[in-house]
Amino acid sequence: MRAYTLLAPAKINLYLEIIGDRPDGYHELAMVMQSIGLCDRVKVRPNGIEDFQIHCNHPQVPCDRTNLAYRAAELLKNEFPDSFAQYGAAEIEIDKQIPVAAGLAGGSSNAAAVLVGLNLLWQIGLTQPELQELGARLGADVPFCISGGTALATGRGDRLEPLPDLDDLWVVVGKYRTLAVSTPWAYKTYRQEFGDTYVSQPQDLARRQQRVHAGPMVAAISHRDGEAIARELYNDLEKVVLPAYPHVAELRETFTKFEILGTMMSGSGPSVFALTSTPETAEQVRAGVRRTITDPDLELWVAPLSSHGIHIAP
Ligand SMILES: C[C@@](CO)(OP(=O)(O)O)[C@H](O)COP(=O)(O)OP(=O)(O)OC[C@H]1O[C@@H](n2ccc(N)nc2=O)[C@H](O)[C@@H]1O
Ligand SMILES: Nc1ncnc2c1ncn2[C@@H]1O[C@H](COP(=O)(O)OP(=O)(O)O)[C@@H](O)[C@H]1O
Questions:
Q1: Quick one: how far is CA 112 from the chain centroid?
Q2: Are the CB atoms for 6 and 178 separated by under 8 Å?
Q3: Which pathway is this protein assigned to (predicted)?
């Protein structure tokens, strides 16, 4: 039986607005999600034993049952016991390039890759929407990671509408290696500080989401206008993460000193990205930030925006 090697892209959030509480304890969102060309490689191959095995080259990633990739494999095993009985478990090897606990959905993308990979390996034949429905049970970002590209995401972040591709823009992503922000902490703190702005009536939620749908960010994307997109970058979670993590605020401020289109924290952070219109500018910005912030803990990557979700490695 063959093995599959999949590329699992990171995501950034070009727009993230928190609209209200949900009965399931999550938040109602309106986001624009964007894949970037910074990818983990996830190899899935039959291992001839009873249990799934996870291997990963990154010390901060657990290789046990708590790994989101393991949980994805278990989910598919439980949903398709006959396929599991026929083909057996698999070894899942994660070559980690996406920084961990960064707001770049690395774990979600690995889980998405395992769903796609085992669907192929076990010849289950699930469609992309079916895989996304399963993925939503693992985490709010997993459905987006499967399809990738540029998308408007509402609900918990798992209701997706594709937007036009933006693959002629570039990002510089910066993250302090030893800094991690807990996503539950970020949402909980936001609720404590800004919960009085939440709406809960279905018609109010729909109006706020429609406002984003018909708003300037989506229009800028439709026109593929990098400068307008940069003007509309927005993330509510910056309001709680930047004051609590001054290094992140400083990195964001440093980016503004260079020739970028715009900058924003991604998701719950602590990674910060800067948009540029060419790879050359992105490299110059990376070099400039590196000269300004000499702390070796700061890591910087350059990547294009990407129209790909999970895909088989060439
Ligand atoms: C903030 C975002 C933006 O894309 O990404 P990250 O920064 O984590 O990458 C997402 O909303 C995170 O998505 P993801 O990381 O998949 O979330 P999950 O594992 O499902 O949830 C982690 C925790 O985040 C909170 N959460 C998440 C999504 C949501 N719509 N409302 C929430 O309140 C909940 O406290 C939940 O327990
Ligand atoms: N496959 C995985 N890759 C990365 N982190 C994982 C994975 N599985 C579980 N984790 C755990 O999930 C946490 C969040 O990681 P990650 O998905 O990289 O961040 P984020 O949700 O901020 O994008 C990490 O602290 C890590 O311990």
A1: 11
A2: no
A3: Isoprenoid biosynthesis; isopentenyl diphosphate biosynthesis via DXP pathway; isopentenyl diphosphate from 1-deoxy-D-xylulose 5-phosphate: step 3/6
